[in-house]
Design goal:
The chain has a single domain, classed as Dihydrofolate Reductase, subunit A, CATH 3.40.430.10. Helices cover 25% and strands 24% of the residues. A 10-stranded mixed sheet has the order 3-6-5-4-2-7-1-8-10-9. The longest helix is centred in the middle third of the chain and has 10 residues. The chain is globular.
Length: 227
């Protein structure tokens, strides 16, 4: 069993989700107020978002020969909620107190190809981790571990487009919560709310749940019709 998963995003009217751009549309207070209403104290973000806003500059440099970590689990602390990140091979660098940065403990999901040395590094920073999947991260397995070991029952996926698209492809998104600001991006190459799905994929069906408008921001919620 996995958590109930909601993808919650703020986008321009053309569906782009670059944070620096959407912050120019709105101060994002409404976004976080809506997130609180969704009842998902734990959130998940992709590597690009983490590198842009939270991690230190640069990448982890190995000092020892690479040794695949294999399937592992480390729970640094028991908590009511976690900030969850995805870093397939383990390259992000972190401050000593990530709990202060995120406002709750950090939990990283990696593939089994991440190095043992990098896991030792995370442990030295008191960062929890899950490694699963030989060829990339096994996201369904990771979601089950979040529920079984970390007691996460509701999870909000809050960026970016590629992790959203991957989880949608794997039928891991139960609900889509989209907030559209009063602006258009239009820049070439910018990520959409859901991105990177293979060209042979069919559109994902949704059923309407609700719509609200506040101060020019439109908030729409849809249930995903999983196959």
């Amino acid at each position: 069993m996995r958590p109930y998963i909601i993808c919650h995003m703020m986008a321009s009217l053309d569906g782009r989700i670059d944070c620096e751009m959407t912050e120019q549309i709105d101060d994002t207070n409404l976004y976080y107020e809506a997130l609180a209403q969704l009842g998902c104290p734990s959130t998940l973000e992709g590597k690009t978002t983490l590198a842009m806003h939270y991690a230190q500059t640069g990448e982890f440099q190995q000092q020892r020969p690479h040794e695949d970590a294999g399937q592992q689990l480390y729970k640094a602390v028991e908590a009511a909620s976690y900030a969850i990140g995805v870093d397939t091979r383990g390259t992000l660098l972190w401050d000593d107190n990530t709990t202060e940065i995120f406002g709750r403990p950090l939990l990283m999901i990696l593939s089994e190809q991440a190095s043992q040395e990098y896991l030792d590094y995370l442990k030295s920073k008191h960062i929890s981790y899950i490694t699963t999947g030989c060829n990339g991260i096994d996201l369904p397995s990771a979601m089950e571990t979040l529920r079984a070991v970390f007691s996460i029952e509701r999870l909000a996926v809050v960026g970016g487009g590629n992790i959203n698209g991957s989880m949608l492809d794997l039928d891991l998104i139960d609900e889509v919560s989209m907030m559209y600001g009063y602006g258009i991006d239009g820049r070439g190459g910018m990520a959409a709310a859901f991105d990177g799905r293979p060209m042979d994929r069919k559109p994902v069906r949704l059923t309407f749940k609700s719509v609200e408008e506040q101060d020019g921001i439109v908030w729409m919620r849809y249930q995903v019709v999983n196959s």
